[in-house]
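Repro:
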Amino acid sequence: MTKSALVVGAGFGGIATALRLRALGLDVHVVERQESIGGRAQAFEVDGYRHDAGPTVITAPFLFDELFELFGERREDHIEFRELTPWYRFIFPDGDHFDYGGTLEKTLAEIRRIEPKDQAGYESLVQHSKAMFDIGFSQLAHQPFHEIKTMAKQIPHLARLRSDRSVWDMVCKHLSHDKLRQAFSIQPLLVGGSPFDTTSIYGLIHYLERAFGIFFAMGGTGALVEQLKQLMLRQGITFRTGTTVSEILTSQNKVFGVKLESGEVVTADCVVFNGDPMYLYRELLPENKIPFTTRLKRDYSKLSMGLYVLFFGANKQYRDVAHHTIWMGQRYKDLLDDIFHRQVLADDFSLYLHRPTATDSSFAPTGHDSFYVLAPVPHQGGCIDWAVEEPKLRYRIIEALDQTILPDLKAHIQAPFSMTPDHFAEDYLSYQGAGFSIAPLFTQSAWFRFHNKAEGFANLYLTGAGTHPGAGMPGVISSAKVVEQLVKETMAKRAFV
């Protein structure tokens, strides 16, 4: 008899898990509370302007290739990944810029322009990041960490690489110029952490970018989701969207399905939860069956920051603006402390500006541009009244862009709308509206993170940003590979319900 799997949540982690479990021969059904799949990779279209709601940076493209290869297909036959040059453009408060990406020679030339002495430091940073990558990604990213002995085996490697240090400390060891230190320490913000707190193991992201490049899916991340959906349909995976799970049903130490908000019960031999573990262990499982150690993680874990995202179009083109721009504010550490520690909404900000029309003109009407701008902000624990503060923050951001990299934006902006941490809490059931679930601290990584095999339950599995190996598209898709391994082991033991 064919075994069944129910995937709750159809973000990238859920999509990848559904495909991998289907390739194992399981009947797979997906339940998603949004009207369409994709999770945070939703796509919007307003007044002719198209926007990717969330992730826009594709690294480790081979992880997507693998999903098609499971079924004898080629990703490139369905969607194009176009490499970007530069990967990112950093704009500093004094008007100087730093183009990062492309060939090593181009990057070194940019570094020499800012600080010649840091060329050698950058080359040593790349080598250190590679050592991190060889352990943290190649060996550990797809390794289950639900058993303490697995963690114990890795402690010597993590100690040798000084994983107890922060990303900022690691970068400062190799680079001297403050602009370069800032540029090469922002990677933790891509996965929800402050560079001053995040374990240096996340410095592997730098080598990941250097080794594989940074790409954009033509048509946007929404187009990539659509092609993955079509792959799922071709393989017989079934969907139910616009449906919210209200309870995961348990019997002793096993789960046997879910209860929907409608009252309907959907059964399965195993359940995969692709969502925020903080929500899972607060709202969907019986309190008396959650192990003590898991309740400690749930009650005391530190969260990632929140996100403010402003989407808009412009009835002109800003041809000199790169696809990905990091607009650095006057403050760096103090601003991050405001966000992560003091949890206050500062008057200033740093910004990530996404201009997809730099690569794909289909995102806007002819002669127009499409944008979103993202600002890290405190999560809901900061008690910010976004109904009051959102219009003020929107005005400050538009004013700042108008005066700098998007001149006359106020005269040309069209169809603006935004997302705040309140939207993340409501739309994605993210605890406290955190943008990336729990923060990527050393004490919240690997075994210390929420396990891919749920604590206390034999056939409940977790994928997504809050579980191992962490946030970001490579992280959540890798979490699906971990679950695949765990389910294969269960199938080999014939240990399903």
